[in-house]
Amino acid sequence: MTRRVLVLGGTGEARQLAAALVDDGVDVLSSLAGRVADPRLPAGAVRVGGFGGAAGLTAWLHAHPVRAVVDVTHPFASTMTASAATAAERTGMPLLRLQRPGWAPEPGDDWRWVDSMEQAAAAVAGLGSVFLTTGRKSLDAFAGLPARCLVRSVDPPEPPLPERTVVVLARGPFTVEEELALMREHGVEAVVSKDSGGAMTAAKLTAARVLGIPVVLVRRPPVPEGVPVVGTVEEAVAWVRAQAG
Ligand code: NAP
Hints:
The chain is about 30% helix and about 20% strand. The chain is built from seven helices and twelve strands. Strand 1, helix 1 (about 10-25) and strand 2 form a beta-alpha-beta unit. The radius of gyration is 19 Å and the shape is elongated. Helix 1 crosses helix 7 (about 235-240). By secondary structure, it is of the alpha/beta class. A six-stranded parallel β-sheet has the order 3-2-1-4-5-12, with helices on both faces. The structure holds NADP nicotinamide-adenine-dinucleotide phosphate. NADP nicotinamide-adenine-dinucleotide phosphate binds near residues 10, 33 and 52.
């Protein structure tokens, strides 16, 4: 029997990869951080909760018969990605990063690139109403904003929040029509987003283009040096097949 493949998940691509590997006869264990109260579960086996940093993951890899790790966490889950790189180096475990490509602007887009949440907050400081789509964990960077801040999340965000925050609890994906309706209802003047990439959360970008409002985009953190990166589930399946069982 071939040993398990550990998929570090929490994304749609991770669920797609788990399903594709199970279809391919691979014994898959998906790992979820446990942040979302009611997560969509992938095919195959699932474990939930952090490993305890790079040291914890190193110990976990020593203790469990895994043959390879595919890091399919979100492009901005940089702590987990760094831990995986360190633990793989320490244990000699084959590691692949599957990361969807970032977004590219289309004609009519007014995108303003920044390197951090703090820079994003500075970029919208003079506006009256902004749509913060950077995730509920990043909101402290916007806490000093005087603007009305529209925040949408699956679970309620925790303080510190901008003083004039309006929270909408909802789980995507959302259509362009839904995004347009929400942005019009709240008089949104700019959208703030991470460069997450992918189709699941791209409707807000189209809606911003239609409304003629700017999008402030936070650049991705770099992938740790030496870790191979692919952009599609198919490439990740091929990589797993190439690993010794
Ligand atoms: P992060 O900052 O890189 O991770 C923080 C800690 O959470 C890690 O150090 C690790 O704890 C634990 N963790 C993260 N992903 C894990 C996984 N797949 N399995 C087990 N433990 C995990 O990550 P994050 O940005 O908080 O994201 C948390 C989860 O949500 C990830 O699975 C990510 O794919 C998903 N997600 C994130 C975003 C985003 O924008 N950041 C968006 C959508 C989904 P230990 O150090 O204890 O191991």
